[in-house]
């Protein structure tokens, strides 16, 4: 493939990825899930590295519920868009 064809293909792939990201942002409410993931990571880091940190049962239950919600949304998206 010549340089022009390679650039066209690269541009097409970039544009396609960008369009999928826009759809995913809308579909997954990425800002919402970004906060959920950041919160779970903060909880994990605190429990790993803070001296004598104990996560509350309420925090753990909320993190688990948020994770289940996120997994469900991703599974539904994959089934809808990538099922044979």
Please explain how this structure is put together.
The protein is mainly alpha-helical. The chain has one domain (3-82). Helices cover 86% and strands 0% of the residues. The protein is built from three helices and no strands. It has helices at 3-28, 30-49, 57-82. Helix 1 crosses helix 2 and helix 2 (30-49) packs across helix 3 (57-82). The radius of gyration is 19 Å and the shape is elongated. The relative contact order is 0.09.
As a percent range, the share of strand residues is under 5%
Question: Could you give the order of the helices and strands?
Answer: HHH
Give Rg in angstroms. 19 Å
Helix and strand composition category: mainly alpha
Low-confidence parts: none
From the spread of the alpha carbons, the general shape counts as elongated
Number of E-state strands = 0
The total domain count is 1
Total count of helical runs of at least 4 residues: 3
Distance between the termini: 31 Å
Helix content: over 70%
Look at the structure and give the mean pLDDT. Answer: 77
Main beta sheet, described?
A: none
């Amino acid at each position: 493939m010549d340089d022009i064809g390679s650039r066209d293909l690269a541009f097409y792939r970039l544009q396609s990825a960008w369009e999928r990201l826009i759809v995913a942002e809308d579909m997954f409410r990425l800002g919402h899930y970004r906060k959920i993931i950041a919160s779970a990571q903060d909880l994990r880091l605190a429990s790993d590295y803070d001296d004598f940190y104990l996560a509350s049962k309420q925090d753990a239950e909320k993190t688990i519920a948020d994770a289940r919600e996120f997994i469900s949304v991703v599974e539904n998206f994959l089934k809808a868009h990538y099922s044979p």
